[in-house]
Amino acid sequence: MGEKFKHAREWAKSFENAREWDLTTPPVPAQAPGSGDPAASPPPAGSSAARGAPEGALSQAELDLLTFFLDDGAAGGELDSLGRWLRDFEDRATAVGLRLNRGKCRLSVAPGATIPEALQGIETCPLDEIQHLGVPCGSPEKMRVFVEEAAKGAERKMRMIASLPDAHVALTLLKFCAGFVSVVHLMRAVGAVFDFAGIDQATQSCLATITGIETDASAWALASLPVRLGGLGLHSCADTAAIAHIAATFDGEACLSSLVTPYVLPHAMLLNEDDTFLASLEDPRLAPFDSVLEKIQDVLQARDNYGGRGQKVWSTTVHGERRKALLDSMTEELGRSGQLQGPALALKQVQIRARIQSCSGQHASAWLYGNAEADPRLWLSPAELAVAIRLRLGLPIAPMPSICRLCGTGSADVDGVHARSCFSGGRRTRMHNALRDVIADFARRGLLAPAVERPVFSNTERKRPDISYVRDGTTVVLDVAVTFPLQPSNPKYAKRAAEKPGGAATAYATAVKEGKYRGIIDNEPNPREWLAVPLVVDTFGAWCPGALTELRQIARKSALREDRTASAACQDFFHQLSFQVAQGVARIVIASGGARPDEAVHPVAGGSVTASRVFLPCSLAGQPRSQ
Predict the structure, then answer these.
(1) Long-range contacts of 68-72 (CB under 8 A, 24+ apart)
(2) What's 447's DSSP letter?
(3) How do residues 552-605 score in pLDDT, each as one tens digit?
């Protein structure tokens, strides 16, 4: 890794030298556009006037250190040189409408040093207490102690979150208020110098306390992936620290280039002088990702920091490659275990990919982190959440199989396959009706005047679509359906789901639903004035493309009538739909007897969190929580 960036260091050094002000060349007066002698010779290429330098500008060589991130920077050198630089910096800031707040500046000087007039009035502090991005950087020991204390604070916050009695609320707070998000500024400041693995372990422990789920290596690797890739969005700090620090360095260079370019290219100086930056570049966690290293190298050479989105761009690439490697390792491990052979092994490997792909579908995971502005009933109970997370991560939902309590004949396996395929007990119908009612409610709010399960065809009264309404002169009939992509009796659905998100829903819509109304509509007097749309979603929440298009139109109609943005209406709409799928599936699994979720991991009033596993009776665990 160090050899890979050796040429980059050399390039940075040469570029740094090329940026020095050539103060030996007499300045040439600048001329306004359209004035003066048009035939006059341009200023010499190496002169300060050719580069737009102010007369008497300070050579960057007089400063020993100059680095910035947004409005937070550090400059170091001889006191007289530092004073001249500060005055010139303030003049440049004033010219672009900025003002330096000297009350927030700190000056660290050697004992007994005389402070020049240009630096008078700035508060002094010991050298080992110098801070950058709020982190002490004057002493490696102080930086280590500071980051360790901050990490301990983050762990304390997670323990407090884990003690909340509402598991779904606790999980949402863990995602948005603790763990990764609470230390991202530290990662941008110190990079790979500090090992953030302790934060990751605390996050994993907090998840276990909230849900009662002990994740193995594969499940935790999946949980640390973004939600849009099928994970839980509990990002790994240890894997992101290097990228965060590198991106912070480049972002600072781009944001303040107009102020500091006359003196130094900050990341060029850092490449040569800053051990923290070099440690991040050479972090072994980045070594497997050649595409990311190439993008970082492009930034070094072309100074293109993706418009300040370097951390997002690089992290997206790393997450995509980690997901691909995780899928490969999970399927390979299944083959090495020897538990399955032949077609059964091949089907199970396809089902693993199908599950993660389906969880990656658009709006499929809207239920995962609740909406604080939505109906308070749209939060899963601890039992429902535990089942939903286990199904998402591919973990067993029960210690052993049992007889299905819905049909009384099937085996409620530990993976919940039978429960999600069983049609007995009427719970699938309840889930279907809940989805239908949410869609009809939003259509009603959009003044589409929907009719729910009423005869609308002139040639038959037997076919009653779930929802029908007239939009722009066209009668739209909607048929809601939920399909299970991993059903063993129909492996083609798993294959389609493994290819792309919503593949199983699309296959079901094509094979079953589209032909259901085609003949009826063709026999109508004006077939072109009819439109049948299958609204098919799989049990992981992924919709078929046609359903997404129609549902978005319904959301936009409601947004126009309720004076809110279309994006806000879509977010609210799909959150309610996603919640109904997640809750419906969890209740089916619990009612089948296949899952006995552990709710005893949450503290009782006045008590403390317990690690014991108490399986509740299914009749109790399946009840919705009181509001």
Answers:
(1) 68/252, 68/253, 68/255, 68/256, 68/259, 68/260, 68/266, 69/132, 69/133, 69/188, 69/248, 69/249, 69/251, 69/252, 69/255, 70/251, 70/252, 70/255, 70/256, 71/256, 72/132, 72/133, 72/252
(2) T
(3) 999 999 999 888 899 999 999 999 999 999 999 999 999 888 665 443 333 333
